[in-house]
């Protein structure tokens, strides 16, 4: 999956922007790349579709919050953990079979907390005590 940087598409340098700034950037880019103003060029049409998609996501606060999490993991994080070359062949072989501690650290640091989900379940006390599902 190719990650699209909606902030870059709208010409914004950071994700810390207000709804008014997103709207102003959208209007500016839409005027610049509108296909009717550029002779129906296919490249401008694709760019215009990306601009509309960017605005649709960034103008909705819930969608923007979700996108910002992904944006931070792909672009916003300055200190990405790089993979170091193993010191020896033995370490490389052990890492292939048992996993490298560097890779495990990277996976732990890149974990994203999901949305909280709640539900109600009706069950009797007897069923809860005596049955295991």
Features:
133 residues, mainly alpha, Helix Hairpins
Compact summary:
This protein has 133 residues and is an all-alpha fold. 59% of the residues lie in helices and 0% in strands.
The CATH class of the domain at 1-78: Mainly Alpha
Number-wise, the strands total 0
How is the CATH topology of the domain at 1-78 named?
A: Helix Hairpins
> What structural class is derived from the secondary structure elements?
mainly alpha
Helix and strand string, N-terminal first?
HHHHHHH
Going by CATH, the homologous superfamily of the domain at 1-78 would be: DnaJ domain
List the helices and strands and how they pair.
Layout (H helix, E strand, L loop, with lengths): L5 H4 L9 H15 L8 H18 L1 H16 L12 H10 L2 H9 L15 H6 L3
Helix pairs in contact: 2-3
Protein described:
This protein has 133 residues and is mainly alpha-helical. The chain has seven helices and no strands. The protein has a domain at 1-78: Helix Hairpins, CATH 1.10.287.110. The chain has helices at residues 6-9, 19-33, 42-59, 61-76, 89-98, 101-109, 125-130. The protein is extended, with a radius of gyration of 23 Å. The two termini are 38 Å apart. Residues 79-86 have low confidence and may be disordered.
């Amino acid at each position: 999956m190719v990650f699209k940087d909606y902030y870059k598409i709208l010409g914004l340098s950071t994700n810390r922007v207000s709804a008014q700034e997103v709207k102003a950037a959208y209007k500016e880019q839409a005027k610049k790349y509108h296909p009717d103003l550029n002779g129906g060029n296919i490249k401008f049409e694709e760019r215009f579709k990306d601009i509309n998609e960017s605005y649709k996501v960034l103008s909705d606060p819930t969608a923007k919050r979700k996108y910002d999490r992904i944006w931070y993991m792909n672009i916003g994080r300055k200190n990405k953990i790089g993979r170091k070359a193993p010191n020896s062949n033995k370490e490389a072989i052990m890492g292939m079979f048992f996993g490298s501690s560097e890779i495990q650290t990277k996976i732990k640091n890149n974990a994203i907390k999901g949305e909280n989900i709640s539900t109600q379940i009706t069950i009797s006390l007897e069923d809860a005590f005596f049955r295991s599902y």
